[in-house]
Amino acid sequence: MEYTQLGNTGLRVSKLSIGTLFFGNTERSIGQKEVNAIVDAMYDEGVNVVDTARLYNAGASEETLGEALKGRRDRMIIMTKGGHEGQKYDDPDKGNPSARMLKREVELSLKALKTDYIDVYMWHNGGGDLAHPPIFPMNTEECMRAMDDMVREGKVRYLAGSNTSSWNHCYANQLAERHGWSKLVLEQSGYSMMSRKAESEMLEYCKAFDISYMPFFPLSAGFLTGKYKKGEEFPADSRAATVAWCGGHIGSQTNENNFALLDKLVAFARERDRSVAELAIAWLLKHPAVDTVPVGATRPEHVKMNAKAVDWILTDDEYAELNAILKEHGK
Hints:
With 331 residues, this protein is α/β, with parallel strands linked by helices. The protein has a single domain (3-224, 285-312), classed as TIM Barrel (Alpha-Beta Barrel), CATH 3.20.20.100. 39% of the residues lie in helices and 15% in strands. It has helices at 32-45, 60-68, 99-113, 140-152, 166-179, 202-208, 239-242, 244-251, 256-270, 276-285, 300-307, 316-328, and strands spanning 3-5, 12-14, 16-19, 49-51, 77-82, 118-124, 156-162, 184-190, 212-216, 293-296. β6 (118-124), α4 and β7 (156-162) form a beta-alpha-beta unit. The longest helix is centred in the N-terminal third of the chain and has 15 residues, at 99-113. The two termini are 30 Å apart. The relative contact order is 0.13.
């Protein structure tokens, strides 16, 4: 496994990280036994970053992860998020994240994860982007102050944003600098070969200010694995077939243009004895702001397969060729 520094922090992170959207002992997720096996595979492969959230399966993702990490938590960098759940409480904070709500949520995360500290804590859907309406449009200062309290109390090591607009991320860090608070050191939002809108502002902002960028949906919900075929039904055991929103996301991509692009990417990878999933991860890691790529896993084999991508360092010529292919298909 290859490691790098996370932005301007003291964290040394593996270039592959694991997403836990499908952890959780619920109807649409995997149970404790499977989660334990995935965490075992992470340690075997040297993956030391795991990404979760209070939102994932109503906290069950954090709970099963916490159980799997018992006795070895200090060997893992845990990233989790708070913010969405605040919309569910029947109180004046509903729909408008506040200091009280964030402090309540971090305590729930600490309890579920069975730990006394979180390595990176993100406000979830911070300032919004084109796909996610703003949740913190008016109270950024209050929320930043609350999260700085978490750092000062030793409950959180670093702060970050998830789906934050570039202007709000910048504004949050200006507030932090003015008041002597902890800054946001990372941003997480959707970015892949199939969706490159993060390049318009956020990635340039992150590169300019040495902020780490973490792309979610790096395989475009599985489309960039090549397992979905033109004119065929979704595989019965696939997430697209079993999870409605995932099926909708994949279905929105199954058009002539995208399948033609996928064919070219598969051919590019095969010429180098690689998979298209490895190519998708390697392409993301080529960007200087991307330090680690979180890929979801529901089986240990997923961890082992995706770990192979980390040692594939695309040349500048290969990167330029790939970007030309993507541009040809409107990406």
